[in-house]
Structure formats: C-alpha cells, structure tokens
Amino acid sequence: MNALEFMRRGELVRIDKFAPDTMLLEYLRLTEKSRGTKEGCNEGDCGACTVVLGTPYNGGVRYQAVNACILLLGQIHGKELITVDDLAHGGILHPVQQAMVDAHASQCGFCTPGFVMSLFSLAHEGRKVSRQDVVEQIAGNLCRCTGYRPIIDAGLAACGAVDDHWHKTQAETFVTLENIKGDLFAGDTNSFFAAPSTSETLADLCATYSEATIVSGCTDVGLWITKQMRAQPKIIYTGAAKDFAHIVDHGSHLSIGAGATYEDAFEALEKISPDLGGLLKRIGARQVRASGTIGGNIANGSPIGDMPPALIALGATLHLRSGKTERKLKLEDFFIAYGKQDRKPGELVWQIDVPKPKPNQMFHCAKITKRRDDDISAVMGAFLFTFDNEKIIAARIAYGGMAGTPKRASKTEAVLIGKTLQEAMHIVLDDFEPLSDMRASAEYRSTVANALLHKALMQAAGETDLQVLI
C-alpha cells in the first residue's frame, strides 16, 4: 500500500503524498483547517493538542487520547481520528462538552479542547469511574485558569457508559478499520514513511534502510522534529506490526515485545510489583503512555528514562534483531555511554525478558521529580534484594539520573552481601558522581539516592518481618 488511510467523520480518508515527518497537529491545523485542536507546548506536556484515536480491539474499537503535537501523521494509518471539532451532532453538544459547560469548567478556553478529548476517551472505557480515575486521566492536561475542581466534576458527571454517535457506529468502524490491511510504504527510496504490518517485514525493512529513523511512539523523536527542527526524510514506524507488541507470561518471567506500549504492558508489569504499577502511572500522562513503548524507552538510551533502572534491577535480558539475526544481552550492557548504545545500524530492540521476583526476593522502585505527575525524573532508583533468613545474599541496585547512562551501583551491591538489614542501614552509596543541571544539583541527587536506598531497605525490613534499628 502506498497511501495513508484512516477514518475521519465516518469516511475513509486517503492521502497519497505527505512529508514523512509531518506531525498530526500540523496536518489538522494547516491542511485540514480543523483548528479546535490547539498548539500549546508542542512537546507533549500540556495536553492542549489532545485528540482521540480509535483502534480495532477485541472485536470493537478502543478510543485512546494522544498528543497530536508529537504524533506523526503516518501513525494514524488504519485508525479513526476524532477531534473536538467532531463531537457536537445536530447542534447538540456531546455529553462531555455539556458537562464542562454545566460545571463552569472553562475560562479562557485554550486548554478546554484537550480536556474534553481526554474525558471523551475516558467516557468510552464503558465503566463507572472514580474521582481518582478522572484525576489520572487529565494529569497530562494543564489549565492556568479554573483550577481543576470543576473539570473533575465535569468528568465525574459525564464519564461512564456513554451512548453517543461513536458508541452506535462502533461495529461499522471496526469493519472499516479491519479492512485497512497490508504494509504501508508511502514515498520513494529517498523519502518515505513506512509502516510494516508484521515484525518480519519490519526487521527486513530496518536492515535494508539502516539509515532510516525508527519510530515507535514518537514521544522522543517528535521533539527532534518540533523542537530541534531536525528533518526526518526516512521513517519506519513499528506500531503497525501487531506481533511486535506481544506480552507473554511464562510464569517465571514476562516476554515483552519492544512495540508494546506502556498502556498495554501496565497490567502485566503491575502484577510483578505494585511499585512497577505506580511507576508506570507516573511515566508521562495517559496520552504519552498510549503511544510510548517499553522498547522505545530503552532504545533511545536516555540516562533519565524511567523503565531501564527498574528492568535492570529485575535482571532483564534484551533481545536485538537485524534482519534474520537475533542476539541477546543483559539490559545493563546495552548502555555504553551517554548517547551510545550497543545497537548496530539497522538493528532493532526486539524483546525484553523480565524475571519475576522469587519468594525470597524483594523489589522496590521510586521516582523523584519536581512535581508529582507528568514530569521527568531527577533521580530514579530500583532495588532487588535476595535474602537467606536475615542476611542479604544478593543485591541488584540501579539508578537513573545519576550518570550518563542508567547504571548499577555495583560497589554498594558488593558491600551489602552478607549484611543483615540492620547492618545495611549504615551503608552509604558511593558509586556515582552525579552532575548538576536544571532538574537537580549533584548534592541533592547524592542525598536522594542514599535516601532511596535506605527506604528500600526499610521496606524490605517490613516485608521480611525484621526489626530495623536506625
């Protein structure tokens, strides 16, 4: 297939030619002239650009809020696009819009379309929602005017099993979207947007065009385009390959395809540890988690990525693939230096195997940020302790934000071996010389890293019924 196809306002839209690095927000506002969707931060933080994508799911359509400012136009291939301009029918506001009016939940109105679309997606989850559900749903939407109480009130009033136009036409939409099949290759060998539909084709295409930019959620690459103005003439999108997003529970461990989004992997990872569930809820906002992938977070090699320290502490193994050739390595060995990973041209981060803690092990992780939600880590700490009675016989400790890569605290791990928890409480972390930057000073990072270690040990004491003396 050489043309982008998606559903819009009940019709199938076909676009034969477009620049590979066209952002969805750019298309909406400048090409389609649908200007209800706003540009605020242009980096996926404020939520003013929130739209909803409908994707075939379990025989129906799943509606998810996403940030249009950091989503490529090509990523909506095979999906339904819904914006705030589409909601009112026959001069009657959508229930979410009406609830916002009734609750006086808008003042200047600039952020309102984004809030409406986030709540629209929550309303279509078809369940009774709590105040916490609404709060988590709009964590990625910022408002300077109203405070959030009336917006939350509107969400509680409107969200649930909404019987609207999209609910009534869901079966037809599912059939239309399911008929958009096959590999997408729009453009030519000099400039293209490719969305292979299988992992095999994806691997072959990446090996053939090793110079192309590989995009999963675009939550990082999107900023290359919108903030750094870096042209991306050749893009290979992984999200159309459904078998690249597998999540398999083997009992002792999980195998997670690199294309699995945070949203899709949440339930399986939370079962490993409630701490992991809590961490995932603080990675970006729901718009980001609906697009961003576990594999993408690893592949970009950020020293402040949230998932790598947790996965390293758990002892994760990384699979990489180039064409038909696959290799694997310990996740911590993938990160060589700042901006440098052990990934060859055309090679894909393919799968992550995540061991589950054993009965004699305790896992803990914590993310420290300036604000509670939708913020980047200053320090991220993850800990796995193995016990024999009252003694620590093995430890895996990993930090983000403390070095140029996600890194294990190997010296501290070695010192902890053979110690009781009481003895371990006196250990001082001495593995890092962190930098000072806009997020935190070196002194702050060192202090917090030590505090996180001691907090993990205290939690271990509680879980192993040991008395800790501090």
Arithmetic mean pLDDT = 94
Rg, please? 23 Å
Name the CATH class of the largest domain. Answer: Alpha Beta
Bin the strand percentage.
Answer: 15-25%
| Total beta strand runs | 20
Structural class: alpha+beta
Supply the number of structural domains. Answer: 3
Distance linking N and C termini: 65 Å
Question: At the third CATH level, what is the topology name of the largest domain?
Answer: Uridine Diphospho-n-acetylenolpyruvylglucosamine Reductase, domain 3
- The helical percent reads 25-40%
Number of helices: 18
Brief digest:
The chain folds into 3 domains: 4-178, Ubiquitin-like (UB roll) (Roll); 185-241, Uridine Diphospho-n-acetylenolpyruvylglucosamine Reductase, domain 2, CATH 3.30.43; 245-463, Uridine Diphospho-n-acetylenolpyruvylglucosamine Reductase, domain 3 (2-Layer Sandwich). It has helices at 24-31, 95-102, 112-123, 131-137, 149-158, 165-168, 170-178, 199-208, 221-226, 262-272, 274-280, 286-291, 294-299, 307-314, 331-334, 410-416, 421-424, 442-463, and strands spanning 4-8, 11-15, 50-57, 60-67, 80-82, 184-188, 191-195, 213-215, 234-237, 247-249, 253-257, 317-322, 325-330, 335-337, 340-341, 348-355, 361-368, 379-388, 391-400, 407-408. It has 18 helices and 20 strands.
Structure description:
The protein has three domains: 4-178, Roll (Ubiquitin-like (UB roll)), CATH 3.10.20; 185-241, Uridine Diphospho-n-acetylenolpyruvylglucosamine Reductase, domain 2; 245-463, Uridine Diphospho-n-acetylenolpyruvylglucosamine Reductase, domain 3 (2-Layer Sandwich). It is 32% helix and 23% strand. It contains 18 helices and 20 strands. It has helices spanning 24-31, 95-102, 112-123, 131-137, 149-158, 165-168, 170-178, 199-208, 221-226, 262-272, 274-280, 286-291, 294-299, 307-314, 331-334, 410-416, 421-424, 442-463; strands at residues 4-8, 11-15, 50-57, 60-67, 80-82, 184-188, 191-195, 213-215, 234-237, 247-249, 253-257, 317-322, 325-330, 335-337, 340-341, 348-355, 361-368, 379-388, 391-400, 407-408. The protein has a five-stranded mixed sheet. A hairpin with a 2-residue loop joins strand 12 (317-322) and strand 13. Helix 2 runs antiparallel to helix 5 (149-158) and helix 10 runs antiparallel to helix 11 (274-280). The protein starts with a strand and ends in a 7-residue tail after the last helix.
